[in-house]
Amino acid sequence: NLLSKEVTIFNYSESSPRPDSSGRNICYKVAKIKAGGLPRFSVGKKSVAHAVEDFVARAVSRPKPEIDLDPGKCQDFTAHYWLRGPDPAAVVAFLSPDKLRLIANSRLEGIVATNANYLVYFEFGSLITEQDFDSFIAAVEKIIGMIL
Predict the structure, then answer these.
(1) Mind spelling out the 3-state secondary structure of the chain?
(2) Residues 59-113: pLDDT tens digits?
(3) 146 CB-near residues (< 8 Å, 6+ apart)
(4) Are the beta carbons of 132 and 30 closer than 8 angstroms?
(5) What is the pTM (predicted TM-score) of this model?
């Protein structure tokens, strides 16, 4: 339990989709936090990979996955993070400008994703040493405090 929430923390790895990866796995540190009634959304840092993914989505006429936010109300967030979800109104109602400001100021390294029962946070890397666990747990506590 972290901040009165039931949390499961674990390592996860999957095979790289790249054919030249020589069988290497991509490793993630994952926290699965039980939290009912959340709207579905995901949020993460903007990157070159994110920009390419959005460009390809537009090129093949897939619906725009991003949720548009008023940059005047959350300029730091919109400058550094993307936000996706199937119900923009529910997500914007849940992620108040204060929560978005906290996320922007926290400089999250990973991705937050939710469904109706869980909030999941994951980052690249593996939990091996005690220090790895301690720093990841601290990051998860910060996310719980910011979002839940």
Answers:
(1) CECCECEEEEEEEEECCCCCCCCCEEEEEEEEEECCCCCCCEEEECCHHHHHHHHHHHHCCCCCCECCCCCCCCHHHHHHEEEECCCHHHHHHHCCHHHHHHHHHHCCCCEEEECCCEEEEEEECCCCCHHHHHHHHHHHHHHHHHHC
(2) 777 666 688 888 777 888 998 999 999 999 999 999 999 999 999 999 889 999 9
(3) 99, 102, 103, 106
(4) no
(5) 0.85
